[in-house]
Amino acid sequence: MFDIQLRSLKDALVDPCCRYVPSFVSPLHVTVAAFLCGLVSCVFATKQEVGLSLVFWALNRLLDCLDGALARHRKTASDLGGFLDLLGDFIVYSLVPIATASGYDDKSATWRAVAVLEATFHVNNFILFYVAAVAEKSQVKSAKESKELTSLMMRPALMEGLESAMIFTLMLAFPNSIFTLSWAMAALVSIGIVQRTFWVVGALAAG
User: For residue 44, how many other CB atoms are within 10 A of its CB?
Assistant: First the structure.
């Protein structure tokens, strides 16, 4: 919901860091490091190590911001880099609720909540990439021409990157609340699905 509005703030905080990254460290290296930190965070979540899980989650978020900024700083941004960045994000985002639930709660009701959340992720991801396909086919402004934070055009919605990161942080910090947080996030993602579906239907009907 606030991703595009906060773009300038993110750039102001992260872009100056690029000059301190050694030349032998490429944006792809940073992307891989972010992904690994996300996986390690999930591993610690399953072991009920809240502090370490949050540390590696914070590193994942920081590095996830840095890789794109570094690529733009060095003028080496590429579709491959954008693809790998999003792939890593989607994998880690899918694992956080599962890792948190497996570490702290084995109740069937909790797993149903996590299952519903994961289902909304799948539907939302389909909608996101259909939005990108429709935008490209209808020659709507591309991600490079807009203020999008990612390499694909993603229509604004109630639940975006910032909001997702905040809820995942709450899951890792307060694992006993995984049931409530999963249902809450599933509801917010579902609202975003409806918002973007209306855009897709409108774009296809107009085309």
Answer: 21
121 neighbors 93 (Cβ within 8 angstroms): yes
Q: For the whole model, what pTM was predicted?
A: 0.85
Whole-angstrom Cα distance, residue 159 to residue 44? 26
Which pair of tokens denotes residue 137? 């086919």
Which residue has better confidence, 153 or 137? 137
Distance CA 43, CA 53 (A): 8
Cβ-proximal residues to 52 (8 Å cutoff; 6+ apart), any chain? 41, 44
Helix 50-73 crosses helix 27-46 at what angle (to 10 degrees)?
170
CA distances from 127 to 62, 85, 120, 145, 191 (A): 27, 19, 10, 21, 12
